[in-house]
Amino acid sequence: MSAIADLRRLTTPQDLFQAAAEEVIRLATEAVAQRGRFTIALSGGSTPKNLYTLIAANASATLPWAQMFFFWGDERHVSLDDPESNYRMAREALLSKVPIPPGNVFPIPAEKEDAAAAAEAYEQTVRKFFSLASGEFPHFDLVLLGMGPDGHTASLFPETAALQEKSRLVVANWVEKMKAYRITLTLPVLNAARCVAFLVSGADKATVLKEVLEGSAPGEKYPSKLVRPTNGKLIWFLDRAAGSELSTAA
Ligand code: 6PG
């Protein structure tokens, strides 16, 4: 039975990032206590940068970094030191500021010329790390996601091929409107996570958020709708501006 969305409605963007940081710290501490490690897939885009900065500032001494393992939900098809790189953003905002062992960080090898080869290589990295048998999906402790004004999440864009993927863990997804490939975890991986947390801030997301949480349009058109963890938690961290069109009052 897929997860009921847990809406965390905060007032300001800073409140949103504070609440999300507390949840990340709680989940990391719990996972390490229960399973000896915490596995997280980071989101790209601009919204999570503030969260990463906050965690680096407030939790660098308290989190069990040696037992934390960092992956990415998606990546642009650029080198890892490109200004567009999701890895670079997270490295600069968080990973370069905390005592994380370099071997605990698994960027998507998007510098590879062939995006499909980058996706295949990352799939092997994830399969090996989680010791997956054929047909098995990894259970990330936490997957962080953003949402675009078109309802895309990770690099699962409306009406793109990756939305149909049922068995691969990672694919290169051609995004016509960008005339570019993106490398992304697939829906089965997102929906196998123990917890998925969306971070959605700003009035420019209000209309699409209403559709995603309350509307009846198909998931093909609003891929964020297709993220429904099978046995995991689904949390939406919203600020007032993003939630301003929802029918339920904050
Ligand atoms: C990316 C992201 C993407 C992002 C949304 C929202 O690589 O861009 O993974 O899915 O989360 O586009 O982006 P903003 O946070 O910048 O609005």
Low-confidence stretches: none
Tally of alpha and pi helices: 6
Helix content bin: 25-40%
How many strand segments? 9
The largest beta-sheet arranges its strands as: 1-9-8-5-2-3
| Small molecules bound | 6-phosphogluconic acid
- Secondary-structure class: alpha/beta
Q: Tell me about the biggest sheet?
A: 6 strands, parallel
Order of helices and strands: EHEHEEHHEEEHEHE
User: Which whole number gives the mean pLDDT?
Assistant: 96
Form type: globular
What is the rounded Rg? Answer: 17 Å
**Beta-strand content estimate:** 15-25%
The CA-CA distance between the termini, in Å, is 26 Å
Question: What does this molecule look like?
Answer:
This protein is an alpha/beta fold and 250 residues long. The chain contains 6 helices and 9 strands; from the N terminus they run βαβαββααβββαβαβ. The chain has helices at residues 13-35, 47-59, 86-93, 115-129, 187-190, 206-214, and strands at residues 5-9, 38-42, 68-72, 74-76, 142-145, 170-175, 180-185, 195-200, 233-238. The strands form 2 sheets. Strands 1-9-8-5-2-3 form a 6-stranded parallel sheet, with helices on one face. It has a 3-stranded antiparallel sheet with strand order 4-7-6. α2 (47-59) links the parallel β2 and β3 (68-72). α1 crosses α2 (47-59). The radius of gyration is 17 Å and the shape is globular. The mean pLDDT is 96. It binds 6-phosphogluconic acid. 6-phosphogluconic acid binds at residues 43-47, 74, 86, 146-148, 152-154.
